[in-house]
Write a structure and sequence with these properties.
By secondary structure, the chain is mainly alpha-helical. The protein has 14 helices and no strands.
Protein backbone atom coordinates (compact mmCIF):
# COMPACT_ATOMS: atom_id res chain seq x y z
CA UNK A 1 0.00 0.00 0.00
CA UNK A 2 2.89 2.35 0.66
CA UNK A 3 4.26 1.60 -2.82
CA UNK A 4 0.80 2.17 -4.28
CA UNK A 5 0.53 5.50 -2.50
CA UNK A 6 3.94 6.56 -3.73
CA UNK A 7 3.14 5.55 -7.32
CA UNK A 8 -0.19 7.39 -7.39
CA UNK A 9 0.84 10.55 -5.55
CA UNK A 10 1.04 12.58 -8.78
CA UNK A 11 -2.41 11.70 -10.14
CA UNK A 12 -4.48 11.19 -6.99
CA UNK A 13 -4.95 13.95 -4.45
CA UNK A 14 -7.08 11.79 -2.18
CA UNK A 15 -10.13 14.00 -2.57
CA UNK A 16 -13.81 13.00 -2.49
CA UNK A 17 -13.37 9.67 -0.66
CA UNK A 18 -17.14 9.26 -0.25
CA UNK A 19 -17.57 9.05 -4.04
CA UNK A 20 -15.09 6.21 -4.52
CA UNK A 21 -15.80 2.51 -4.85
CA UNK A 22 -12.62 1.58 -2.91
CA UNK A 23 -11.06 2.89 0.31
CA UNK A 24 -8.27 5.43 0.10
CA UNK A 25 -4.75 4.05 0.25
CA UNK A 26 -4.19 5.96 3.48
CA UNK A 27 -7.21 4.20 5.00
CA UNK A 28 -5.86 0.82 3.93
CA UNK A 29 -2.48 1.63 5.44
CA UNK A 30 -4.10 2.60 8.73
CA UNK A 31 -6.20 -0.57 8.84
CA UNK A 32 -3.23 -2.81 8.03
CA UNK A 33 -1.17 -1.12 10.73
CA UNK A 34 -3.97 -1.51 13.28
CA UNK A 35 -4.35 -5.21 12.46
CA UNK A 36 -0.60 -5.78 12.78
CA UNK A 37 -0.55 -4.10 16.20
CA UNK A 38 -3.58 -6.10 17.35
CA UNK A 39 -2.01 -9.38 16.24
CA UNK A 40 1.25 -8.52 17.98
CA UNK A 41 -0.58 -7.64 21.20
CA UNK A 42 -2.58 -10.86 21.09
CA UNK A 43 0.56 -12.92 20.50
CA UNK A 44 2.41 -11.28 23.40
CA UNK A 45 -0.60 -11.93 25.65
CA UNK A 46 -0.49 -15.63 24.90
CA UNK A 47 -3.45 -15.67 22.52
CA UNK A 48 -3.58 -17.65 19.28
CA UNK A 49 -3.56 -15.51 16.16
CA UNK A 50 -5.50 -16.57 13.08
CA UNK A 51 -2.21 -16.50 11.19
CA UNK A 52 -0.19 -18.62 13.58
CA UNK A 53 0.15 -22.19 14.79
CA UNK A 54 -0.32 -25.50 13.07
CA UNK A 55 -3.27 -24.41 10.94
CA UNK A 56 -1.24 -21.62 9.39
CA UNK A 57 1.56 -24.07 8.59
CA UNK A 58 -0.92 -26.33 6.79
CA UNK A 59 -2.35 -23.45 4.77
CA UNK A 60 1.16 -22.42 3.78
CA UNK A 61 1.63 -25.91 2.34
CA UNK A 62 -1.66 -25.63 0.48
CA UNK A 63 -0.62 -22.30 -1.01
CA UNK A 64 2.58 -23.87 -2.35
CA UNK A 65 0.69 -26.48 -4.36
CA UNK A 66 -2.14 -24.20 -5.47
CA UNK A 67 0.51 -21.95 -6.98
CA UNK A 68 0.89 -24.58 -9.76
CA UNK A 69 4.64 -25.14 -9.26
CA UNK A 70 4.95 -27.80 -11.97
CA UNK A 71 5.55 -31.55 -11.99
CA UNK A 72 9.22 -31.34 -10.97
CA UNK A 73 8.39 -29.19 -7.95
CA UNK A 74 5.55 -31.54 -6.93
CA UNK A 75 7.87 -34.53 -7.10
CA UNK A 76 10.44 -32.58 -5.05
CA UNK A 77 7.82 -32.04 -2.36
CA UNK A 78 7.19 -35.79 -2.22
CA UNK A 79 10.91 -36.43 -1.91
CA UNK A 80 11.14 -33.94 0.97
CA UNK A 81 8.23 -35.62 2.76
CA UNK A 82 10.03 -38.98 2.66
CA UNK A 83 12.94 -37.42 4.55
CA UNK A 84 10.83 -35.91 7.33
CA UNK A 85 11.47 -37.15 10.88
CA UNK A 86 8.90 -39.06 12.87
CA UNK A 87 7.49 -38.42 16.32
CA UNK A 88 7.47 -35.01 17.99
CA UNK A 89 10.12 -33.66 15.62
CA UNK A 90 7.60 -33.83 12.75
CA UNK A 91 5.26 -31.33 14.42
CA UNK A 92 7.36 -28.26 13.63
CA UNK A 93 5.78 -25.72 11.30
CA UNK A 94 8.15 -26.32 8.32
CA UNK A 95 7.61 -30.08 8.54
CA UNK A 96 3.83 -29.70 8.71
CA UNK A 97 3.93 -27.40 5.69
CA UNK A 98 5.96 -29.94 3.74
CA UNK A 99 3.73 -32.85 4.77
CA UNK A 100 0.50 -31.09 3.79
CA UNK A 101 2.00 -29.89 0.50
CA UNK A 102 3.31 -33.37 -0.28
CA UNK A 103 -0.11 -34.97 0.30
CA UNK A 104 -1.77 -32.50 -2.02
CA UNK A 105 1.09 -32.79 -4.53
CA UNK A 106 0.69 -36.57 -4.63
CA UNK A 107 -2.97 -36.17 -5.54
CA UNK A 108 -2.00 -33.78 -8.36
CA UNK A 109 0.38 -36.48 -9.61
CA UNK A 110 -2.48 -39.03 -9.44
CA UNK A 111 -0.70 -41.05 -6.74
CA UNK A 112 -3.75 -41.26 -4.50
CA UNK A 113 -2.51 -44.06 -2.23
CA UNK A 114 0.58 -42.03 -1.29
CA UNK A 115 -1.58 -38.94 -0.81
CA UNK A 116 -3.89 -40.81 1.55
CA UNK A 117 -0.95 -42.20 3.55
CA UNK A 118 0.63 -38.78 3.93
CA UNK A 119 -2.70 -37.25 4.94
CA UNK A 120 -3.27 -39.96 7.56
CA UNK A 121 0.18 -39.23 8.97
CA UNK A 122 -0.63 -35.53 9.03
CA UNK A 123 -3.92 -36.10 10.83
CA UNK A 124 -2.18 -38.11 13.54
CA UNK A 125 0.32 -35.31 14.15
CA UNK A 126 -2.19 -32.44 14.35
CA UNK A 127 -4.94 -34.29 16.23
CA UNK A 128 -4.40 -32.17 19.35
CA UNK A 129 -4.97 -28.86 17.54
CA UNK A 130 -8.65 -28.22 16.73
CA UNK A 131 -8.18 -25.88 13.78
CA UNK A 132 -5.34 -27.89 12.26
CA UNK A 133 -7.24 -31.15 12.73
CA UNK A 134 -10.21 -29.65 10.90
CA UNK A 135 -7.98 -28.56 8.01
CA UNK A 136 -6.40 -32.01 7.81
CA UNK A 137 -9.83 -33.68 7.80
CA UNK A 138 -10.99 -31.44 4.97
CA UNK A 139 -7.85 -32.39 3.07
CA UNK A 140 -8.66 -36.08 3.53
CA UNK A 141 -12.15 -35.47 2.11
CA UNK A 142 -10.71 -33.53 -0.82
CA UNK A 143 -8.21 -36.29 -1.59
CA UNK A 144 -10.93 -38.96 -1.46
CA UNK A 145 -13.06 -36.95 -3.88
CA UNK A 146 -10.12 -36.51 -6.27
CA UNK A 147 -9.50 -40.26 -6.09
CA UNK A 148 -13.11 -40.94 -7.06
CA UNK A 149 -14.12 -42.35 -3.67
CA UNK A 150 -17.27 -40.40 -2.71
CA UNK A 151 -18.39 -42.94 -0.12
CA UNK A 152 -15.08 -42.61 1.72
CA UNK A 153 -15.25 -38.82 1.49
CA UNK A 154 -18.79 -38.76 2.87
CA UNK A 155 -17.80 -41.09 5.72
CA UNK A 156 -15.00 -38.70 6.71
CA UNK A 157 -17.38 -35.74 6.79
CA UNK A 158 -18.80 -34.37 10.02
CA UNK A 159 -21.75 -32.65 8.37
CA UNK A 160 -23.76 -32.21 11.55
CA UNK A 161 -20.99 -30.08 13.08
CA UNK A 162 -20.01 -28.20 9.92
CA UNK A 163 -20.01 -24.49 10.69
CA UNK A 164 -17.37 -22.79 8.55
CA UNK A 165 -17.74 -22.05 4.85
CA UNK A 166 -14.88 -24.40 3.98
CA UNK A 167 -16.55 -27.27 5.83
CA UNK A 168 -19.91 -26.59 4.23
CA UNK A 169 -18.55 -26.53 0.69
CA UNK A 170 -16.03 -29.36 0.92
CA UNK A 171 -18.22 -31.71 2.93
CA UNK A 172 -21.32 -30.65 1.02
CA UNK A 173 -19.75 -31.71 -2.28
CA UNK A 174 -18.76 -35.03 -0.74
CA UNK A 175 -22.30 -35.71 0.49
CA UNK A 176 -23.73 -34.63 -2.84
CA UNK A 177 -21.47 -37.11 -4.65
CA UNK A 178 -22.73 -39.78 -2.23
CA UNK A 179 -26.34 -39.00 -3.26
CA UNK A 180 -27.21 -37.26 0.01
CA UNK A 181 -28.44 -34.04 -1.55
CA UNK A 182 -31.36 -33.64 0.86
CA UNK A 183 -29.00 -33.19 3.81
CA UNK A 184 -26.93 -30.68 1.88
CA UNK A 185 -29.98 -28.66 0.86
CA UNK A 186 -31.38 -28.53 4.40
CA UNK A 187 -28.21 -27.01 5.83
CA UNK A 188 -27.33 -24.73 2.94
CA UNK A 189 -30.78 -23.14 2.98
CA UNK A 190 -29.95 -21.57 6.32
CA UNK A 191 -26.45 -20.60 5.20
CA UNK A 192 -27.53 -18.70 2.08
CA UNK A 193 -30.20 -16.92 4.11
CA UNK A 194 -27.50 -15.29 6.24
CA UNK A 195 -24.89 -15.20 3.43
CA UNK A 196 -26.84 -14.27 0.29
CA UNK A 197 -23.69 -13.21 -1.57
CA UNK A 198 -22.03 -16.62 -1.36
CA UNK A 199 -22.04 -17.72 -5.00
CA UNK A 200 -20.35 -21.05 -4.26
CA UNK A 201 -22.97 -21.99 -1.68
CA UNK A 202 -25.79 -21.09 -4.09
CA UNK A 203 -24.25 -23.25 -6.81
CA UNK A 204 -23.90 -26.20 -4.45
CA UNK A 205 -27.48 -25.69 -3.27
CA UNK A 206 -28.63 -25.66 -6.90
CA UNK A 207 -26.94 -29.02 -7.48
CA UNK A 208 -28.52 -30.42 -4.30
CA UNK A 209 -32.00 -29.33 -5.44
CA UNK A 210 -31.41 -30.79 -8.90
CA UNK A 211 -30.40 -34.11 -7.37
CA UNK A 212 -33.74 -34.21 -5.55
CA UNK A 213 -35.67 -33.39 -8.70
CA UNK A 214 -36.65 -29.90 -7.48
CA UNK A 215 -35.98 -28.25 -10.82
CA UNK A 216 -37.59 -24.91 -10.06
CA UNK A 217 -35.60 -24.37 -6.89
CA UNK A 218 -32.44 -25.51 -8.64
CA UNK A 219 -32.88 -22.91 -11.37
CA UNK A 220 -33.58 -20.16 -8.83
CA UNK A 221 -30.51 -21.07 -6.77
CA UNK A 222 -28.42 -20.99 -9.93
CA UNK A 223 -29.82 -17.54 -10.69
CA UNK A 224 -28.95 -16.34 -7.19
CA UNK A 225 -25.36 -17.52 -7.70
CA UNK A 226 -25.17 -15.29 -10.78
CA UNK A 227 -26.53 -12.35 -8.82
CA UNK A 228 -23.82 -12.90 -6.22
CA UNK A 229 -21.26 -12.68 -9.04
CA UNK A 230 -22.88 -9.46 -10.34
CA UNK A 231 -23.72 -11.22 -13.61
CA UNK A 232 -27.22 -9.77 -13.71
CA UNK A 233 -27.86 -10.62 -17.36
CA UNK A 234 -27.23 -14.33 -16.76
CA UNK A 235 -29.26 -14.20 -13.54
CA UNK A 236 -32.22 -12.61 -15.36
CA UNK A 237 -32.10 -15.32 -18.03
CA UNK A 238 -32.34 -17.99 -15.35
CA UNK A 239 -35.14 -16.25 -13.44
CA UNK A 240 -37.10 -15.98 -16.68
CA UNK A 241 -36.44 -19.64 -17.37
CA UNK A 242 -37.86 -20.42 -13.94
CA UNK A 243 -40.95 -18.36 -14.75
CA UNK A 244 -41.39 -20.27 -18.01
CA UNK A 245 -41.03 -23.50 -16.08
CA UNK A 246 -43.81 -22.44 -13.73
CA UNK A 247 -46.11 -21.46 -16.59
CA UNK A 248 -45.56 -24.79 -18.31
CA UNK A 249 -46.63 -26.54 -15.09
CA UNK A 250 -43.72 -28.94 -15.52
CA UNK A 251 -42.09 -28.22 -12.17
CA UNK A 252 -42.74 -31.09 -9.73
CA UNK A 253 -43.62 -30.48 -6.10
CA UNK A 254 -46.55 -29.55 -3.90
CA UNK A 255 -48.77 -26.67 -4.99
CA UNK A 256 -48.27 -24.56 -1.85
CA UNK A 257 -44.50 -24.80 -2.07
CA UNK A 258 -44.53 -23.98 -5.76
CA UNK A 259 -46.73 -20.92 -5.16
CA UNK A 260 -44.25 -19.56 -2.59
CA UNK A 261 -41.33 -20.29 -4.90
CA UNK A 262 -43.12 -18.58 -7.81
CA UNK A 263 -43.70 -15.46 -5.70
CA UNK A 264 -40.03 -15.33 -4.75
CA UNK A 265 -38.98 -15.77 -8.37
CA UNK A 266 -41.28 -12.98 -9.59
CA UNK A 267 -39.98 -10.59 -6.94
CA UNK A 268 -36.36 -11.41 -7.60
CA UNK A 269 -36.89 -11.07 -11.35
CA UNK A 270 -38.09 -7.49 -10.93
CA UNK A 271 -35.21 -6.69 -8.59
CA UNK A 272 -32.62 -8.08 -10.99
CA UNK A 273 -34.17 -6.20 -13.90
CA UNK A 274 -33.69 -2.99 -11.92
CA UNK A 275 -30.10 -3.93 -11.04
CA UNK A 276 -29.38 -4.71 -14.68
CA UNK A 277 -30.69 -1.29 -15.79
CA UNK A 278 -28.60 0.43 -13.12
CA UNK A 279 -25.53 -1.53 -14.20
CA UNK A 280 -26.09 -0.57 -17.86
CA UNK A 281 -26.50 3.07 -16.90
CA UNK A 282 -23.31 2.99 -14.81
CA UNK A 283 -21.40 1.40 -17.69
CA UNK A 284 -22.67 4.13 -20.00
CA UNK A 285 -21.54 6.83 -17.57
CA UNK A 286 -18.13 5.22 -17.18
CA UNK A 287 -17.63 5.30 -20.93
Amino acid sequence: FEKLQQASRLNDSGGFPYLRSHPLTTERLAEASARAQSAAAQHSAGGVSHLSGMAHALMAGRAIVLGEPGVDALQALLAQARLLPTGAAASTAPNLTTLYAAALAASRLRDFDTAAALCARLQAIVASDVRAARAARLLSIELAMLAGRPAQAAAASDWGQASTRAELLVEGRALLAAQRGAEVADKLQGWVTTHPRDAGAWQLLSAAYAQQGQTLRAVRADAESRVAQFDYAAALDRFKAAQDLMRSASAPGNAAGQHIEASIIDTRTRQVQLLLREQALQDKLDR
